[in-house]
Amino acid sequence: MSLLKLVGVLLDYPQDELWQHGDELLDAAADPMLSGERRQQLVDFTRELLALEPLTAQDRWLAMFDRGRAMSLLLFEHIHGESRDRGQAMVDLIEAYRKNGFELSAKELPDYLPLLLEYLDRRPQAEARDWLHHVSHIVGLLAARAGERNSPYAVLFEILVEYADGKLDLGALRQRASEEPRDDTPEMMDRLWEEEAVRFGAEAPGDDCSPPTRSPARPAATRQVQP
């Protein structure tokens, strides 16, 4: 299992099948292309995830990625929000997948980061790095926000930034993340749902990828761990 495939599997909603492939995941986490420190961090993350009960791991994932929008794994959420531009971007991305023989099921959203990583795993390394470089500002901000929330998932985003040779100041992004209002608190979630009931039209995020004010729909969490 390649590094991109592994990170995608670990970022995805933890299906029960994950625990059936524990040894394979740990072997892949010891990737020699990583620095010694990063390799150990990835192995530690994988061991810690596998040590959890599936329901506990799933609850942790939902708390991290399914409350509010700041940590959404749907990349176009951070670029287009619910604007019409997002629809065209989705069509273009699906076309890119199909052009290279990568078909999606009807329920899969093409901008879901674990899915994109599965696709890039099948592409030449230079192409995969270029794709990730173009979204590294989003991935870097996700890394910063995860770090600010003391989430172990932060290391996965940091590895992706480094894989893409992203020249990002993660310290500055972490400072910015510390100043953002949290959108995953019960109070904020209640407010967002109240606003959702009366808002008409679409609201896109700013160019700086600050958290939009509407909560995302959950992507279909049906992918399975495969060698």
Automatic annotation (TrEMBL):
Keywords: Nitrate assimilation. The keyword Iron does not apply. InterPro entries: DMSO/NO3_reduct_chaperone (IPR020945), NO3_reductase_chaperone_NarJ (IPR003765), TorD-like_sf (IPR036411). Signal peptide: none annotated. Residues 200-227 are annotated as: Disordered. It comes from the Bacteria. GO terms for biological process: chaperone-mediated protein complex assembly; nitrate assimilation. This is Respiratory nitrate reductase chaperone NarJ. GO terms for molecular function: metallochaperone activity; unfolded protein binding. Pfam families: Nitrate_red_del. Residues 210-227 have a biased composition (Low complexity). The keyword Methyltransferase does not apply.
